[in-house]
Amino acid sequence: MAQYMARVSSAAEKIGGQVLDVTKVVHEAFSVQKELLIQIKQTQKPDLTGLGQFLKPLNEVIMKASALTEGRRSDCFNHLKAAADSLTALAWIAYTGKDCGMNMPIAHVEESWQTAEFYNNKVLVEYRSKDPDHVEWAKALKELYLPGLREYVKAFYPLGPVWNPNGKVATCVVSKAPAKSAPAPAPAPPPPPPASLFSSDSPQASSSRPKQGMAAVFQELNSGKPVTAGLRKVTNDMKTKNRTDRTGVVAASEKEGRTGSPSFSKAGPPKFELQMGRKWAVENQIGKKNLVIDECDAKQSVYVFGCKDSVLQIQGKVNNITVDKCTKMGVVFTDVVAACEIVNCSGVEVQCQGSAPTISVDNTAGCQLYLSKDALGASITTAKSSEINVLVPGTEPDGDWGEHALPQQYIHVYKDGQFVTTPVSHSGG
Question: Is 281 helix (H, G, I), strand (E, B) or coil?
Fold first, then answer.
């Protein structure tokens, strides 16, 4: 594993900044797991509560990585998410048998990487022709898990860690790693609860996903958050999915009577400015229907953050557009060189009047995409999103727009030695 980790670290050192920070956390997580595996050989197999305490140091490092992805979205957000999500693969160490509710260790590593690969591929696409160091980092991160961790687990722990029946009683043994890493972004993660992060009581608190036994350990380790979060990998910013006022349509008449959402109660001052000649920042705009960017070029990006009940027009070609944490927001743009990204939003409408090679929708509940004829070749990627509708021009010049609902449910059928996945068809009423 050392050679794979060295390659990731080498690439991160060339990039620096947040990429280097999150890579150091990844390195720390692997180091903590190595220490745990050494201790397992000398320790009796604990019960659920004891296992939670034993694995607590590893969970604390995973929480630290998850905390780096919170707050305002940075230019390295995809790097941070890829690295943080990849650490769920280390949960294979909690496997204790076929009745524990987890996949086998090798399968768990492979499936965990699939979650991180969504963001890792974004890094590859964004920097393919811009910076080879970022491409090298993304490739090295993948090889750390596939084949790196997968082959390591396959060779030494295909059936999970082997506990020592004559060993000592399990305790929280790896105390040095959390103590060394505690000064990292302390204000970001919430304080851990006094009880075990892997307590068997925690799954009972979640009525939507009741689990017992080792399935609870797996769920909590994957969450990357304290047990009070209750849901797997759900941050505060993603909780807009549960709001009752969400909708897939931006209807102006409906917004005026609504009070502000708690998500925007701590919004900063409104911004509408070009920063350093490269990035348009449109932030915390509430109820503004006439926002217009008309002096832009293909080297500039547009970042829309924390806006609500507003409409933004981008008149000209830009390099990239990101709509982040917006509610009931409308965005109309002409052309985009790289991609238009919609993340952590609720009830947004986006219209492309020209061309866009890539459109991605992530962690969004309710999104209407209007594509021009020149944009029909766009690649649309969705993840953890619902109520996504794409409207395309009719065949006739004055014809009606055709509406297509993108599937959010899938059927998985085991066939010929592998699972075949097909979307659940949508039928009009």
Answer: strand
| Rounded Cα gap, residues 326 and 291, in angstroms | 15
Give the CA dihedral 100, 105, 111, 114, nearest 10 degrees.
140
Comparing CA positions, the residue from 201, 229, 234, 235 lying closest to residue 216 is: 201
Q: What is the pLDDT of residues 228-274, one digit of tens each?
A: 444 444 455 544 445 444 444 444 444 343 433 333 435 688 999 98
Query: What residue has token string 């140091």?
Result: 57
Distance CA 372, CA 338 (A): 17
DSSP string, 317-385: EEEEEEEES-BS-EEEEEEEEEEEEEES-EEEEEEESS--SEEEEES-EEEEEEE-GGGTT-EEEEES-
Q: Does pLDDT of 280 surpass 50?
A: yes
Give exposure, 249-260, as e/b (b: 16+ Cβ within 10 Å). Answer: ebeeeebeeeee
Cα–Cα distance, 320 to 408 (Å, whole number): 26
Max avg pLDDT among 59-73, 119-133, 346-360: 346-360
| Residue 249: DSSP 8-state | S
Residue 310 has pLDDT above 80, yes or no: yes
Contact at 8 Å (CB) between 301 and 317? no
Q: What does the DSSP assignment read for 117-170?
A: HHHHHHHHHHHTTT-HHHHHHHHHHHHIIIIIIHHHHHHH-TT-----TTSBPP
Q: Which tokens is 357 given?
A: 């090679």
| Cβ neighbours, 10 Å, residue 36 | 20
pLDDT confidence tier of residue 136, bands split at 50, 70 and 90: very high
Q: What is the pLDDT of residue 179?
A: 39
Beta bridge partners of 383: 362
pLDDT value at residue 396: 75
The whole-angstrom separation of Cα 164 and Cα 43 is 5
SS3 279: strand
The answer to whether residues 263 and 302 touch, using CB atoms and an 8 Å cutoff, is no
Q: How far apart are CA 83 and CA 8, in angstroms?
A: 11
Q: Determine the Cα–Cα distance for residues 18 and 14; give it in Å rounded to an integer.
A: 12
Both tokens assigned to 51: 């296992």
